[in-house]
Design brief:
Chain A: It is found in: Cytoplasmic vesicle membrane; Golgi apparatus. Chain A: Belongs to the adaptor complexes small subunit family. Chain A: This is AP complex subunit sigma. The complex is a heterodimer. In chain A, 59% of the residues lie in helices and 17% in strands. Chain A is built from 9 helices and 7 strands, in the order ββαβαββαααααββαα. In chain A, helix 3 crosses helix 7 (140-150), helix 4 crosses helix 9 (179-205) and helix 7 crosses helix 8 (161-176). Chain B is mostly helical. Chain B is extended and about 100 Å long. Classes of the chains: A alpha+beta, B mainly alpha. The interface between A and B is large, with 77 and 97 residues.
């Protein structure tokens, strides 16, 4: 199972932390410090895996990914697969970025377009240069919501970004808007999705 | 149009309000982000806390504002500050009707509270209500909270609702309900044990997501108890097939989206492969179902994406775990090759890991990847390096141990991470103990480990090292022993100069210097004692080191006195001893006093107390205390009551005594080395008269308080009968001396001997392994290191080259039997084990006294196979047999009875040909076992020495050997042809 998810910047400041087994605040801080001290000493272009047994107990693995000024860190045990978790980080960041892009419904088309590009070109690193790390914090509760959709009680629940996006959308829709707008929005998004193949082909032909 | 614009703005605002925060919060985040120091950050956060404390209690806060406060609290707590004042507000927020407020509330409580927090009780009710809500999003939010907040006691409160949700129309809810149940199972398995069938049923859910979620709890259940889920193998295989072929329904081909969107089924594939690996391990029938589908997945495997590689990796794990299939193993090896050749460190890491798994089944795989593995070893990536060490650890053999351990030590020195240092140090020690090619190398390696990882290693390791130096090679190789010891002394005197040595290493140094510092006459006593005092002074706050040092001093002075030389204490020694005489530690005091007393004695007495190089000799403890008989007789004549053993007094059966003593004995057998630290414990012959002559108040034999009390009670009782207080005192003293278990009439002495025999069987075998590995290594010459110019190739050759058996066999003559034994031939191994067992039985049959034969026989035989690794045993046996053989040959006629055995043995071996190595083992075994048992007794020191092995020491006679020979043949090993080469090697 997954023991913790951490997001911190390259100065070691936590941007998001979620522990799936309760830890007192001091322990959390200590863990964050330990993880950071290991991560910042790792050279570039090495593997994304770190041995975490010394500070998370036996049978702990750590996978991290470094985007621009942020580290995304997952700590988990042997019942998960390292590469799969690495992929999950990709998904999470992806959704995070798109989530940010989607603050305005009017930009939904752009977002989908952008999303497709990032998926295919895998230029997350690049797009995080545009998305300042503070955006993660500004969207603090949104990130938590995304994470809750992906991981539940330490188990990976959903790895499909589409599914997660759908769930997030519905949560925000339900909470905020009057019914009529909801339908309007749905139409918009379904339109958007219908447009996708076109935009894909358009992008490809470019 | 106008309206639309407004809506747009509202929407943007709204969604900001939903997830985003007010300007204030943004300011806060920014200022924290820009804070230069931790102190500045703390100041900002503390100010924020003050603001929040004030604001949060204001009446009539707008919901959106409140939500933001809670988020800010979360943020504050994430930064490591206490936000407990706001917990209650978060709890209140969960009662809110608005979904987003509710979610925020739940989010906050899941992050704030542990599942045993007092406030949980306020939430359970809300959760219960929300689980029944019509809005599935509310239900989802509640399920999120359930996973985190419900503990063992509150499970029953929500369990029924959660179970109901398994049938919810929304798949998202079903999925989460399954996860929640899994969580319950995780927290308290028995509370949901009646619901496990639900997991099986949910496997057939028509939503693949729910099915995927169900795999998580099933994996946990199966890992615990694979047998009761064997029936699911076929369904798992068919699901896996469908998933792999994308035949699952619904959204997985969501609007014809290509690859990256179909994630969930990949995740399920990984889980399924994990499950199959557990179910198929060691089960041929189950494994056969899986071969096709796994082969298919590997064949179609997409290695361009992480998730594709993750699946391939899981396939390898699965292949290496289930019943082996040649084709699949080949396919797996190909995938590993692809991983290792990849540029990505991640894939290399996975490749090394997979290689480590596969190597257990097909050891030859590693050879193809020599260079890749060495590349990984030299990679700047720490993680990869550690993984590679893990792999090397698995492939270590006696041929490559030197290279591997050297590498490990180099790495160990270079890192500062204590946790990993401990780990790798213990690995080094383990490998060195198991495969050391020579004692010298072993000591050098241990020195390095101690020097650099010192206090991190287990104390046992230090004891083993001391024992190794103390025992040496055994009687046969006195010259080599003394050489080893002088080299140890030499190296330690050299190392002493280094600053800041770890305490454990110093203890070893002190012990060795004390025991052997002056043995070869190279260094004078005053030189060594000077060094010892330096140590004690330099590490004056370490009492253990000081104790070792003073004991070493005692020994050196004792040896000097015994050799008839005059002892003049160096002034610093003098002052050291004086310091200890006044020490707070009674242990140190005692040692110092003993030293003082010893110096006053004459040469003969000192020699008896402290014989040279006797650390491994037995200390004979006369448990019957026969020398006291006269005294007892006297007392009885004077009217004292006879001593009644405690068990008789308390009415316990004799058997229990027997058992408890047995336990007591075996407890002491796990590496106890007290005798090494203490200057020889009081030998009874010396102690007894002292205590007899002195009054009863001195009780030098350590006894537990409990037993002393019982003695006193008993003596009170007996004295009340006898009526003489003076007698009571005396009797008391005698009884204490007597001790509970040692008092023995003729009957109890026979129990003693029977009980001790099996115990000795155990130690014998324990020590056997150690002795074996050591002895064998003397005969292991060199390392076939191939001198090829590129360094890497050289390394590769030294790591992997040794594995080719044929090469090894031809290299040197006395290696032959060993190479063949180390070949991983299962059948041989087991045969040898059987042979060993038989011989042990045979031996006990012959050598034990006729009465109680059955008893003895049984216990010994059952103990033997349990405590030994037969393979290791066998390896050792061979070389020991060689050593004994050659030695007897050279030493010639001096020991006639042994020659007879030898003759019998060799004749048996000569006749045996078909099975070159295993038969001489049988022949020589008896001899060896007796040797081992001697070693065993030597290994165990202190008061626990018994001599039940006299029978084997007595030496076999010709008749015995012939009998044995006959039995060997009876066992079905019929010698057919000759193997003159082998035995000319053996016999020189």
């Amino acid at each position: 199972m997954i023991k913790a998810v951490l997001v911190m910047n390259t100065q070691g400041k936590p941007r998001l932390s979620k522990f799936y087994e309760f830890q007192p605040v001091e322990k959390q801080q200590e863990a964050i410090r330990n993880v950071f001290s290991v991560l910042c000493s790792r050279p570039e272009h090495v593997s994304n895996f770190v041995d975490a047994e010394s500070f998370f107990g036996p049978d702990s693995r750590l996978v991290y990914k470094h985007f621009a000024t942020l580290y995304f860190v997952f700590i988990f045990d042997s019942s998960e697969n390292e590469l799969a978790i690495l992929d999950l980080i990709q998904v999470m960041t992806l959704i995070g970025v798109i989530g940010y892009q989607l603050v305005s419904v009017l930009s939904v088309l752009e977002a989908v377009n952008f999303w497709l590009k990032t998926v295919f070109v895998e230029t997350l690193d690049k797009c995080f240069r545009n998305v300042c790390e503070l955006d993660i914090v500004f969207n603090y509760s949104k990130m938590h919501t995304i994470l809750d959709e992906i991981i539940l009680g330490g188990q990976v629940l959903e790895t499909s970004s589409t599914e997660v996006m759908k769930a997030i959308d519905e949560i925000s829709k339900c909470a905020l808007f009057p019914i009529w707008f909801l339908t309007c929005r749905l139409e918009a998004s379904s339109n958007a999705i219908n447009l996708v193949p076109k935009s894909v082909s358009g992008w490809r032909s470019r | 149009m106008e309206q639309l614009k407004t809506i747009g703005r509202e929407l943007a605002m709204g969604s900001q309000g939903g997830f985003g925060q007010s300007k204030e919060f943004l300011e806060l985040v920014k200022s924290i982000g820009e804070a230069r120091s931790k102190a500045e950050e703390d100041r900002i956060v503390l100010r924020e806390i003050e603001t929040l404390k004030r604001r949060i209690v204001e009446p009539d806060i707008a919901k959106r504002k409140m939500k933001e406060y809670i988020i800010r609290l979360l943020y504050v707590e994430m930064l490591g500050h206490d936000a407990s004042f706001g917990y209650i507000h978060a709890v209140k927020m969960t009662h809110d009707d608005n979904l987003l407020s509710k979610r925020t509330g739940y989010l906050a409580v899941t992050l704030f509270l542990n599942d045993d927090h007092d406030l949980i009780i306020l939430i359970v009710n809300t959760i219960q209500k929300d689980l029944k809500s019509d809005n599935y999003l509310v239900v989802c939010a509640a399920l999120n909270a359930v996973c985190r907040l419900i503990n063992e006691e509150t499970i029953p409160a929500v369990l029924p609702s959660v179970v109901d949700l398994l049938a919810h129309p929304k798949d998202a809810v079903r999925k989460k309900a399954v996860m929640a149940l899994h969580r319950f199972h995780h927290k308290s398995p028995y509370s949901v044990s009646h619901l496990i069938d639900n997991f099986r049923r949910k496997l057939c859910d028509n939503d693949p997501g729910v099915m995927g979620a169900t795999l998580c709890p099933l994996f946990d259940l199966i890992a615990v108890d694979p047998t009761s889920y064997k029936d699911l193998v076929v369904s798992f295989v068919s699901i896996l097939k469908q998933v792999a072929e994308h035949r699952l329904p619904k959204s997985y081909d969501y609007h014809q989206m290509p690859a990256p969107f179909i994630q969930t089924d990949k995740e399920s594939q990984i889980k399924l492969l994990k499950i199959l690996a557990v179910l198929g391990s060691g089960d041929k029938q189950a494994s056969e179902h899986m071969y096709t589908v796994i082969g298919e997945i590997i064949r179609k495997g997409d290695s361009s994406s992480n998730i594709g590689n993750a699946i391939l990796y899981e396939c390898i794990c699965c292949v290496s775990s289930i019943y082996p299939n040649v084709k699949l193993l080949e396919a797996a090896a190909d995938v590993i090759a692809r991983f290792l050749k990849s540029d990505s460190h991640n894939l290399k890491y996975m490749g090394i890991d997979a290689l480590g798994r596969l190597i257990k089944i097909s050891p030859h795989v590693a050879e193809q990847h020599q260079l890749a593995v060495i590349d990984c070893l030299e990679d700047p990536d720490d993680t990869l390096k550690r993984k590679t060490f893990e792999l090397l650890y698995k492939m270590t053999k006696s041929s490559n141990v030197e290279v591997i351990v050297d590498r490990m030590i180099d790495y160990m020195i270079s890192i500062s991470d204590d946790h990993y240092k401990t780990y790798i140090a213990s690995r080094c020690v383990e490998l060195a103990e198991q495969f050391a090619p020579s004692n010298h190398w072993f000591i050098q390696t241990m020195n390095k480990v101690f020097e650099h990882a010192g206090d991190l290693v287990n104390i046992k390791v230090a004891h083993n090292l001391m024992r190794l130096i103390g025992e040496g090679f055994g009687e046969d190789a006195a010259a080599a022993d003394s050489q080893l010891r002088s080299s140890a002394v030499e190296s330690y005197l050299h190392i002493i100069g280094e600053p800041k040595l770890p305490s454990m290493f110093l203890q070893v140094i002190c012990w060795v210097l004390g025991e052997y510092g002056t043995a070869d006459g190279k260094y004078s006593a005053s030189y060594i004692t000077g060094k010892l005092c330096d140590i004690a002074e330099a590490y004056s706050n370490d009492e253990t080191v000081k104790a070792y040092a003073i004991s070493a001093l005692t020994k050196i002075y004792a040896f000097e006195i015994a050799a008839g030389r005059k002892v003049d204490m160096l002034p610093e020694c003098q002052s050291f001893v004086e310091e200890l005489l006044a020490s707070h530690s009674t242990d140190l005091q005692q040692r110092a006093y003993e030293l003082q007393a010893l110096i006053g004695l004459d040469a003969r007495a000192v020699e008896t107390i402290m014989p040279q190089d006797a650390s491994c000799e037995d200390i004979e403890v006369d448990k019957n205390l026969a020398f006291l008989h006269g005294y007892v007789q006297q007392s009885l004549e004077r009217g004292a009551l006879p001593y009644i053993p405690e068990d008789e007094r308390t009415g316990m059966v004799n058997v229990s005594n027997f058992r408890s003593q047995d336990q007591h004995e075996s407890a002491q057998h796990g590496l106890r080395f007290e005798a090494y630290e203490v200057p020889k414990p009081p030998i009874p012959s010396k102690v007894a008269p002292v205590s007899l002559s002195s009054s009863t108040d001195l009780v030098p034999v350590p006894e537990t308080l409990y037993s002393r009390e019982t003695h006193q009670i008993s003596s009170v009782r007996s004295s009340s009968e006898a009526g003489s207080s003076e007698l009571k005192l005396k009797l008391d003293g005698v009884q204490k001396k007597w001790g509970k278990p040692t008092y023995s009439s003729s009957t109890s002495s026979s129990t003693n001997s029977t009980s001790q025999n099996p115990v000795n069987g155990v130690t014998q075998m324990d020590v056997a392994a150690a002795v074996n590995s050591r002895v064998r290594d003397n005969y292991d010459t060199r390392e076939p290191r191939v001198e090829i110019s590129p360094e890497k190739q050289k390394l590769a050759a030294s790591l992997f080259g040794g594995s080719t058996k044929t090469e090894k066999r031809s290299s040197t003559s006395n290696k032959v039997p060993r190479a063949s034994v180390s070949a991983p031939d299962r059948s041989q191994e087991s045969k040898a084990a059987v042979a060993l067992n038989e011989v042990a039985r045979e031996k006990t049959n012959q050598s034990s006294p006729p009465p109680d034969l059955l008893d003895l026989d049984e216990s010994t035989v059952t103990v033997v196979p349990a405590s030994v690794d037969p393979f290791k045993q066998l390896e050792g046996l061979l070389d020991t047999s060689i050593s004994s053989t050659t030695n007897h040959n050279s030493s010639g006629e001096s020991n006639a009875p042994d020659i007879m055995t030898l003759y019998a043995e060799t004749s048996a071996s000569r006749e045996s040909g078909s099975d070159g190595y295993s038969i001489p083992v049988i022949g020589d075994n008896v001899n060896l076992l007796s040797e081992l048992s001697i070693a065993a007794v030597r290994g165990t020191t202190g008061e626990t020495t018994v001599t039940p092995l006299s029978q084997s020491v007595k030496g076999p006679n010709a008749k015995d050997s012939l009998q044995r020979d006959a039995k060997v043949r009876q066992m079905g090993v019929t010698p057919t042809s000759q193997n003159p080469n082998l035995f000319s090697d053996l016999l020189g």
